[in-house]
Amino acid sequence: MPSARVSRRGLLTLAAAIPIGSSLLSACGAGDGSGEKVVPFYTTESDPKSLALYRSVIRKFEHEHPGVTVKMTLYSDENQLQYLQTAMQTGTDIGVFAPPAANILDWAVKGYLLPLTGMIEDIGEDDFLPGTRIVHRGEDYAMPFQANASVLYYRRDLLDKAGIEPPRTYGQFLGAVRELHGRDGIDGISSGAGNTPGMTTQFLAPYVYQAGWDYYGPDGEVLFGEDEVLDAVKRHVAIMRYARKGAYNTNYPDLMNTYISGKAAFATMAGRLGVNLAAQNPRIAEVTGVLPVPAGPFRTGRLAYGGKNQYSVFAHTRHRREARAFLKELTTGENALKFALTVPGHLVPPLKSVKARMREEIGVSDDPYLRKHGDWVRTILDLVPHAMSPDMAMGSVVHGVYDGKRSNPCPWAGKAWAPPPPDASMVQSILLRGDDPEQAWRRAVDEFAFAARDWQSANPQWRPAA
């Protein structure tokens, strides 16, 4: 269990989150002594359209559940982990909350999360896309509300001018990035490395998967040390050399802004880039295409990085029944479809039934984005079933074999990818310090191996989900 001692910085971080329409005290579920049942709801979804939908769902839920109030609080991806750890240490009721995927299984083992198995069974276990559930000892501990896939955005006008076809192989990709880099001040690619959770892994993982390997195997053995993974690292670094040096220690907004402002020929990103691009720079959007990332020789372009987000329920929340009822209302049926349509292509529904309805919506919707860029969204929808992350789908690609995305969370992911993540440090040391790629890679292998050994030695009863 974590220490109960909380630093002044931690308390300031807790206070920095923004309760929507409430005080922090009421957001934490204290109520006013009138018998009102308060369900705290903590989310990182800050898109205005998504927030507007959430507010409407909350109003309807409160109307249908007299005496229940849902208090929504926003916090950011950057302070998500510290905020939640501080809240747990101080005994704050965080109710329904968005946890970092890498920490869910560890928190479930430690007893911080409420099992959601009954709710998952009511929804229908077969309705969930592969790799979206998080199961420990037969119990579900999270409700996914978003899946996505990273794709390759490219400037058709720049490729046409240079007489280059859209790349379908890694060699074509590297050649195009190299050829276009520096022309009229344009970067070859907007891609990066940094300590934001999952960012470097998002860009590197397709190279690892398309080398025929994963970070860890199905039973937790380290696969990152395979020779083909070193080749994958070298391929990724070769592409990254045509990004601006500032991208070697950056964040998502800077990477998106580089492409949106017309300063890069390619960008690797999930669907939010497309939505922001169409809204902020329609001229560049008109000449942009979307492809799977061609990162290696194994199933080229068919295996991608795919993140997902989920909500969990705090095990010590005061009103468990109401919290679970609100979570189900928020993440299923019509509400799930409406949420996905607030940022089309980025918020891909993790329920097959809702995803099918979204695909139908592309052809009939009056939404200007879907009508103009529905092909971008279809490309992402097609990739999502085979878009995965090493912290949630451990051992999906082993020795050049891929039999589908596994639902196999890595319980030591919070330790393995704790800032600074080994893969981020590896890429940065090669690009910023000029370290030998093999030496930098071996250091990363050792760190990933230590994280697995250390957690498993403290949790000898653990058995993989897959």
Task: Please specify the SSE layout and strand pairing.
Elements: H1 8-16, E1 18-20, H2 24-27, E2 37-43, H3 48-64, E3 68-74, H4 80-90, E4 96-97, H5 104-109, H6 117-123, E5 135-136, E6 139-140, E7 143-147, E8 151-155, H7 156-162, H8 170-180, E9 187-190, H9 199-209, H10 227-240, H11 252-260, E10 264-269, H12 271-280, H13 282-286, E11 288-291, E12 304-305, E13 308-313, H14 320-331, H15 333-340, H16 352-364, H17 368-383, E14 387-388, E15 397-398, E16 401-402, H18 413-416, H19 422-433, H20 437-458
Parallel strand pairs: 2-3, 2-4, 9-10, 12-14
Antiparallel strand pairs: 1-3, 4-13, 5-6, 7-13, 8-10, 8-11, 15-16
Helix pairs in contact: 1-4, 9-10, 12-17, 15-16, 16-17, 19-20
Provide a descriptive summary of the structure in words:
With about 475 residues, the chain is an alpha/beta fold. About 45% of the residues lie in helices and about 15% in strands. It contains 20 helices and 16 strands. It has a six-stranded mixed beta sheet with strand order 1-3-2-4-13-7. The protein has a four-stranded mixed beta sheet with strand order 9-10-8-11. α3 links the parallel β2 and β3. α15 packs across α16 and α16 packs antiparallel against α17. The two termini are about 25 Å apart. The N terminus is likely disordered.
